[in-house]
Structures are given as C-alpha cells and as structure tokens.
C-alpha cells in the first residue's frame, strides 16, 4: 500500500536536558550578595560596638594614670579627690545607662560604686572621701590606696 511506499521519517520523543543547578539564576546571585553584605555589616557593627564599649575603660585607665602623675607632681589631695571623683562619674555615665548612674549622690553613689568591685571599700572604706573630701579644707588620706581602689573599680567594669 501507499504507506509502505512512503516511509514516515518519525523519531522518538526526546525529553529536554534536566535543568542544571549551575549557574544559578540571577535572583539567587542577588540573595547571595545580600547575605554576604548582611554578614559584613553585622561583623562591622559588632566590632565597632565592642571597641566603643572597651574604649571607655581604656580612656579611664589612661586618665587615671594622668591623675596619678599629676598628684605625684603637685601632692595636692584636694585636686586628687576631685579628679578621681570626676573620672569615676564620667566613666559611669559612659558605661552604664544614664538614668541608672547620672543622678546618684552621697551614699547611693558610693553604694553604686561598691557594686562594681563586690566589696564595700567606697561606702565603708577609703572611698568615702570621694563624697566628703572636696568640701573639706584639709584632707588626710592614703592617696595610693584610693588610687588603687579606683583602678580596681575601672578594671572590674563590664
């Protein structure tokens, strides 16, 4: 018959190649770039936050050294007490929440300082002079002990 004479040139159905996972679609490249940028931003901000947090402690250490040198040159206890009190107050405001530390005075201030070193050297020891000392005409104190106490408090900062 006629169909035998005319052979149809038919081929089997060929399925397309499976979709390759590489190279990814452009949307996946954008997701990857976004993740890398996000990780970079988090690392940068964390380093900056840690540096800022530690810088208050570093600045306080340096300022304490300056105060100690100034005391060794001048030998004035009044200036030492005033400078140490100012240093501790500024450091507190830098490290702790402002509402927690800024308004403290007198015994509340000394108790707050005691919490940092886990002993009562400010409220019941040499540190008491920080509250009353600036208002006295003459002060008799062990300056080295007071400086060491302030140094211990700075080192105990979080």
Put simply, the count of helices is 7
What is the string of helix and strand elements? HHHHHHH
How would you state the average pLDDT, rounded? 88
By DSSP, the count of extended strands is 0
The major sheet is characterized as:
none
CA-based shape = rod-shaped
Structural class: mainly alpha
Radius of gyration: 35 Å
**N/C terminus separation:** 99 Å
User: In what range is the share of β-strand residues?
Assistant: under 5%
Helical amount among residues, as a percent range?
55-70%
Low-confidence stretches: none
In summary, what is this structure?
With 158 residues, the protein is an all-alpha fold.
Task: Describe it.
- With 158 residues, the chain is mainly α.
- It has a domain of 103 residues.
- The chain contains 7 helices and no strands.
What key attributes describe this structure?
7 helices, mainly alpha
Secondary-structure topology with pairs:
Blueprint: H1 2-5, H2 26-74, H3 77-95, H4 98-101, H5 106-117, H6 129-132, H7 143-155
Helix pairs in contact: 2-3, 2-7, 3-7
